[in-house]
Design brief:
Elements (H helix, E strand, L loop, with lengths): L7 H6 L37 H15 L6 E8 L4 E9 L2 E10 L3 E10 L2 E11 L8 H6 L12 E10 L2 E7 L9 H24 L1
Antiparallel strand pairs: 1-2, 2-3, 3-4, 4-5, 5-6, 6-7
Protein name: Lipoprotein
């Protein structure tokens, strides 16, 4: 399951993304339920690997996702050639603490949460929901295609990745469909580059607005 991300560009290239017109992250899109962002969650260790090094990252994650009141929340639409998305930036006293992005498609939905420590990326929580059927797959489509299912958000396949950073280096990554053993160093380097490039792109986008 480590290579599922390699299929994402192909997946999202054929999707028409939809952005809700709402003003905060709790509103629902018109067509489908939204993945819930982390609130008052604790990232508990699943084993003893790097427990002490990851402790401050986990504590920062808990602190930020427990915050109820923000000085400023800035929402930006992201429009690209084959996809659309929304990015939300959370500030506390002019200090950026968290960024979330949402992508909506006909067959999948993705939520990514970026957490910062002193302006540097510390934790990334990616949640991909792969729908059991396209969102338009109702009882009529089911009958016309001799299928036995209709679209049901609750039947989505859920893929989650947690990535832990320190001083710009990806220390560790956990995938909910993996056995929990550490990933190979070359794979972590690829993931480090992927996540940092996307994070820096979002920061540049926010500064332009």
């Amino acid at each position: 399951m480590k290579n599922w991300r390699n299929l994402l560009p192909l997946l999202f290239a054929f999707l028409t993304f939809e952005i809700g017109s709402c003003q905060n992250e709790n509103d629902k899109s018109k067509d489908v339920e939204e993945i819930k962002i982390s609130r008052n969650e604790i990232d508990a260790p699943v084993n003893e690997y790097l427990t002490q090094k990851l402790k401050p990252i986990r504590e920062n994650f808990k602190r930020i996702n427990s915050t109820e009141n923000w000085t400023e929340i800035k929402q930006i639409d992201i429009l690209e050639s084959s996809e659309s998305a929304i990015a939300v930036f959370y500030f506390q006293k002019n200090k950026l603490e968290k960024v979330i992005t949402r992508h909506f498609g006909e067959t999948a939905q993705k939520l990514t949460e970026y957490y910062l420590i002193n302006g540097e990326l510390s934790f990334v929580f990616e949640k991909l929901y792969k729908y059991n059927r396209p969102i338009y797959w109702d009882s009529i489509a089911k009958k016309e295609n001799n299928d036995n299912e209709v679209f049901d958000f609750e039947e989505s396949e859920i893929i989650e990745d947690k990535s832990y950073f320190s001083n710009g280096t990806l220390l560790h990554q956990i995938n909910n469909q993996d056995c929990g053993s550490p990933f190979a160093s070359d794979y972590l380097l690829e993931e480090q580059e992927r996540l940092l490039v996307e994070f820096k792109r979002l920061i540049k986008l926010e500064k332009k607005k």
